What we know:
Elements: H1 2-23, E1 36-39, E2 43-49, E3 61-68, E4 72-76, E5 86-88, E6 95-98, E7 102-106, E8 112-115, E9 121-122, E10 128-129, E11 135-136, E12 152-154, E13 159-162, E14 165-169, E15 172-175, E16 181-184, E17 188-191, E18 197-199, E19 204-207, E20 209-211, H2 217-251
Antiparallel strand pairs: 1-4, 2-3, 5-20, 6-19, 7-8, 7-11, 7-15, 9-10, 12-13, 13-14, 15-18, 16-17
Helix pairs in contact: 1-2
Amino acid sequence: MYSATSGALVAQSAVDTIANNLANVNTVGFKRTLLQVQAQPKTQLYRFQTDPTRASGGQPAQVPIGSLGSGAQVYDTPADFSQGAIAATGNDLDVALSGPGFFALRGGNGALRYSRDGEFVRDQNGMLTAQNGDQVLDASGAPIALPAQGNVVIDRTGAITVDGQSYGKLGLVEFTNASALRPEGSSRFVDTGNAGAHTATNTTALQGSVEKSNADVIRSMVDLIANERWFEANQKSIQTQDTAVAQAVQTVGRSNA
C-alpha cells in the first residue's frame, strides 16, 4: 500500500509538472521542466523467533528475509535548456539567443536573474528593460540607457548602436554548470551559487526575433495521459490492498461456532 501511495504521489507531481509546461507553451524563453524519479531506500526485513525452541538452541532466532522496497520518490525537477525555435518579430528591441547563453537582468529589488526572454522595451526613463520592468544589464553589469529616438541596431555579439553611436553591449552570460540554475517564475533563473557564470563565448544574438518555448505540446499531452493512467493504476492498487485489509480485520479471529 505504501509503495502504491508513493507511486501515486510521484505521478501527481509529474502531472503538475507537465501541466505547467503546457501552460507555458507560448511563453517567450520558457524552458520546460523535467521530473527525475528515484527509488526510495530499501528496508532490510528479518524474522524474529522470540519464543526459544529446540531448533534455535534455546535462544531467540533472527533470520534475514531480504530487502523490501518502499516505492519511488521525486529526486529533482531540473530545467531542459535545449534551444527553442526562433521566431521573427520585426521589433528592433526583440533579441533571440542562439546558443547556451542568457541575458542578465536586475529586478526592482536588486536581485540578479538570468533569462532567455528577449522581448525588451524602452521604458519612460529610456532604460532597456524586460516586459516586467527588470533592467537589462550590459557586459559590465550596468543598466543600458537608450535615446528616445533613433535606429537601434544590435549585432550578433550583442553590441548596441543607435544611429551609429555605441550604447554598450548586452551582458550575455553562459554557465559551466547550468543544472545549478533554478527557475523563478515562468522565464527567470537564479544561480544557486555553483553554476559557474562567465561571459558568453558560444552565443549569438539575433535582433528582431525571440526564442519560443521549448515545451512540446504533443509530447506533453502523451506524457500527461500516461501519468494519469499511472496514477489510476496506483490508486486501484491502494483500493485493492485496503479492501484486503478490511476483509482480514473482519474475518480473522471469527469462530465457526
